[in-house]
Design goal:
The protein has one domain: Rossmann fold, CATH 3.40.50.300. Helix 1 runs parallel beside helix 6. The protein has twelve helices and eight strands. Helices cover 45% and strands 17% of the residues. The protein is an alpha/beta fold and 271 residues long. Helix 8 links the parallel strand 6 and strand 7. Strands 3-4-2-5-1-6-7-8 form an eight-stranded mixed sheet, with helices on both faces. Bound molecules: adenosine-5'-triphosphate. One of its GO terms (cellular component) is cytoplasmic side of plasma membrane. One of its GO terms (molecular function) is ATP hydrolysis activity. Pfam families: AAA_31. This is ATP-binding protein.
Length: 271
């Protein structure tokens, strides 16, 4: 899976694994095969709900070129991930306090030309640096959609990977491609369905994907764990447009309850 990542990056990944054992910080990478399925909405709202439960949370917006998280958190970032990568600021300066207590953001930058960073290990390094601060309980990485080298690198350094999908056939096809890739050297993929009315739908589709994986003889030790669903809600799209978090604005909404249930399971599962 990671054969295209440079040796230098592989070394950093091993270092990150070692340092993760020394730090209290848990790392969760949130990804999706297809774009537009709700990955950033999940990341921002999961981060907020975790922080409101008392965890100190940092979000790294690694959706290179399509920085959405600053919009959801309604921040005009003074600095971005790339200022840090270019050595202009310290890691502490890169971690921007949001208006939510306990919640920090390393902002991305829309339209950034990242071709200069073809040695993509720089992205693994920033994650390692945040973990090494040993200050956060949880770091969430919001990757871009798809499976480019940058996304692969963020997946490589994380033991906790959460994929967001819808029931759209193209989203499921992309999800299966992600499962196929991860099955080579990961133990588990957690899965959430967005835009599904009830828990049962995700259960049924997850089982079909697991059966397909068995039929195609993907690694037996690789597990897909379905951890919950969020329904379509007008409150989610409206709050997104207003640069607000639905789970903050509508604490008793069904979708917020669904996301709280996802977080309960997520917390039981993360390593
Ligand atoms: N359950 C939902 N109900 C209603 N609207 C939703 C729901 N989930 C997400 N949306 C809306 O769908 C749009 C896309 O969501 P979002 O930006 O989170 O997707 P994404 O997967 O991060 O996209 P990208 O690949 O572009 O980063 C947003 O306008 C968001 O408000």
């Amino acid at each position: 899976m990671f054969n295209t990542i440079s040796n230098q990056a592989s070394k950093l990944i091993n270092l990150t694994r070692r340092n993760k054992q020394l730090s209290k910080t848990k790392l969760i990478t949130i990804t999706s095969g297809k774009g537009g399925v709700g990955k950033s909405t999940f990341t921002g709202n999961i981060a907020y709900l975790l922080s409101s439960r008392g965890f100190k949370v940092a979000v790294i917006d690694a959706d290179i070129g399509l920085a959405n998280m600053q919009v959801l958190f309604d921040i005009k970032p003074k600095f971005t991930l790339f200022d840090y990568i270019e050595g202009k600021i310290t890691i502490e300066e890169a971690l921007l306090q949001t208006s939510y207590k306990n919640l920090f953001l390393v902002a991305g930058k829309s339209g950034y030309q990242y071709a200069n960073h073809s040695n993509s290990f720089v992205f693994a390094r920033i994650v390692e640096d945040v973990i090494n601060l040993n200050e956060f309980d949880i770091v969430l990485i919001d990757t871009g959609a798809g499976l480019n080298e940058y996304v692969k690198e963020f997946l490589a350094i994380s033991n906790n990977i959460l994929a967001i999908t819808t029931t759209d056939p193209s989203a499921l096809t992309d999800l299966y491609a992600l499962m196929k890739m991860l099955s080579k050297d990961k133990e588990e993929l957690m899965l959430c369905f967005n835009h599904t009315r009830n828990h049962q739908i995700g259960d049924t589709i997850s089982n079909s994907l697991i059966n397909l994986a068995k039929k195609n003889r993907l690694n037996d030790n690789f597990m897909v764990k379905y951890i919950g669903n969020v329904s379509t809600s007008a409150n989610i799209s409206t709050t997104g447009r207003l640069r607000k978090l639905f789970s903050h604005e509508f604490k008793n909404d069904d979708s917020t309850r669904q996301l709280q249930a996802i977080i309960d399971t997520l917390l039981k599962n993360i390593k």
